[in-house]
Amino acid sequence: MRGKSTYGTLYRKTRQExxxxxxxxxxxxxYDLSHPWGYGVPNWPxxxxxxxxxxxxxxxxxxxxxxxxxxxxSTTHVDAPGHVIEGAPLLEDVxxxxxxxxxxVVSIPxxxxxxxxxxxxxxxxxxxxxxxxxxxxxxxxQTFGDNSTYYAYSPGFYREAGEWFVERGVxxxxxxxxxxxxPLATAIAPHGPGLPNGLLPWACEEYKRETGHDVLDDxxxxxxCHRQIFSNGIxxxxxxxxxxxxxxxxxxxxxxxxxRWVGGDGCIVRIVAMLDRSGEFRIExxxxxxxxxxxxxPDISNARQGYPVPPxxxx
Length: 315
What we know:
The chain is α/β, with parallel strands linked by helices. The protein has a domain of 211 residues: 3-Layer(bba) Sandwich (Glucose Oxidase, domain 1). It is 20% helix and 17% strand. It contains nine helices and eleven strands. Strands 1-11-9-5-6-7-8-4-10 form a nine-stranded mixed beta sheet. It is globular.
């Protein structure tokens, strides 16, 4: 069992006792819109489990070092356009500005297998504006876990929503559901790697019993929302959760940066929504001159490279 850390508490207490200068972020409120990540986290139906190994630990080495084996499409994460569309940008190609900016968290409650439609997005408040990062709270994050309810029965986007996001000109889209598309428009149904029966054939059979329709009659396209937004430069976040309810109905500032992964198709992220109580926080002006300059590249001509040269051998 992992021991409870007291470092954060001690750090804050020490700063207060030492009379430390107030932080520049003291007026800001931070909200974590990410699900916790670690060993045993819920997985999308065709992914392997997360593996975490302690290579060094305090009782053995007096340091802690861990090795992780995981897919990046785990818990709260971002999809790069190249995840779904051949030749589209991968993580290192996506501008940093796509992961930061103003946006909204809107409430669009939905039930089992319902679709988020353009009229829902149009009616959402605060109004979704061009250039926004948009997070949709359907309420489904409250079911997040290793269960069929979250993955097989969730509501979601389909082509209509993807087209609406493109037309509105948003910068990024996120949802508190299992994917950027309705589950029956993913490989959970007979699409892509889910052919011929779907990864969860029982869910497809249940849909037909309840609606009288074959899944492919109502969801003939494979991940059309993904394809609509990704082909138009819009990135997407899946499995949003955490403090999402605390900022629903608010316009906020988002920061949600992934790794600088060359060739990355997606990445686990920590989505942070920020509010400023004072309205006085600012990012430093770009037109102010730098005081000093960057150091030159070090001269390593006299540094030995590789193994030491044996005695008597000329270097």
